[in-house]
Amino acid sequence: MNNKLYPLLYPFSGHTIFIWAATAFILLSAAFSVHADHKIPQRVISLSPIITETIFLVGAGDKLIANTSYCTVPEEAQYKEKIGSVIQMNVEKIIRLKPDLVIASQLSREKQLKQLEKLSVHVVRAQNPRTFDQMCEMTLEMGRTLGHAEQARKIVARSQKMAEAILKETQGLEKPAVFLQIGIKPLHSGNKDMFINEYIRYGGGINIAEHEGTGVYSREKVLEVDPDIILIATMGSSKKAGNLERQKWLEFKNMRAVKNNRVHVLDPEMVCSPTPVTFVEGLKHIVPLLHPVLINSVALQTGEGN
């Protein structure tokens, strides 16, 4: 594992189970303002899965001419031209494709991005979102930039309405202590500066790793804090890895979460793919685990409040 990329490392193997998607990307208004007086881009290249997913979400998939080998959602993304991986792009191939916009991630190599810019390729760099609101802004900016502002607005408005309805349902309920594991080697969670924390906040829980300086969190510390609930979303492998990790936790029979059967495996493709839409879908799965009393909640079933 390349420690220089840590902790924003894409999961390249079953042992590098980390949070590239959970730290997804927000496209800043300032970055897109360069295109304010120009034509809508027609030939776009995405350098990260979450950017690719958002392009399709706002209905601009026809403008996407290429992406990375890790861009597999939605299914149509798999059939786009591939320009390399998340951290290593083929600059020559990108030039040959003649894009009018390349949207880069924080894992993109700066040296390669500068090569593209020297050849007059317009590059937009992305930064990490920390909140659901920032992810919504990413979607709106993508929509405006690619000429699909109205569709993006409708998607965001509906997602915000549903998220607020769910948040309202959890207000006033006792907040359980939650450990949300998103990495195995080393053990990893999400602090308050990571988007993954929003699942627990909206879900009506307390993130035991919220105030940690980094996402690294030892198993010994989890045992010491003894949270009410353990949620596992392990990126980079099949769900089997999450189930194996669950078995490890079940060995600690004196833990509250184990004694009360509250160690759960989540679908990482859903939880760690933070568009406004997938965030709400993730909440619908997580909230009943934190608050079983809400399993039949109208907000969780329909996204509408009472």
Q: Topology, pairings included?
A:
Blueprint: H1 29-32, E1 44-46, H2 49-57, E2 64-67, E3 81-82, H3 91-97, E4 101-104, H4 110-118, E5 123-125, H5 132-145, H6 149-170, E6 177-181, H7 197-202, E7 206-207, H8 219-225, E8 229-232, H9 239-250, H10 256-259, E9 263-265, H11 268-271, H12 276-290, H13 298-302
Parallel strand pairs: 1-2, 1-4, 2-3, 4-5, 6-7, 6-8, 8-9
Structure write-up:
- The protein is α/β, with parallel strands linked by helices and 306 residues long.
- The chain folds into two domains: 3-154, Rossmann fold (3-Layer(aba) Sandwich); 172-302, Rossmann fold (3-Layer(aba) Sandwich), CATH 3.40.50.1980.
- It is built from 13 helices and nine strands.
- It has a five-stranded parallel β-sheet with strand order 3-2-1-4-5, sandwiched between helices.
- The longest helix has 22 residues, at 149-170.
- Mean pLDDT is 85; it is low at 1-24.
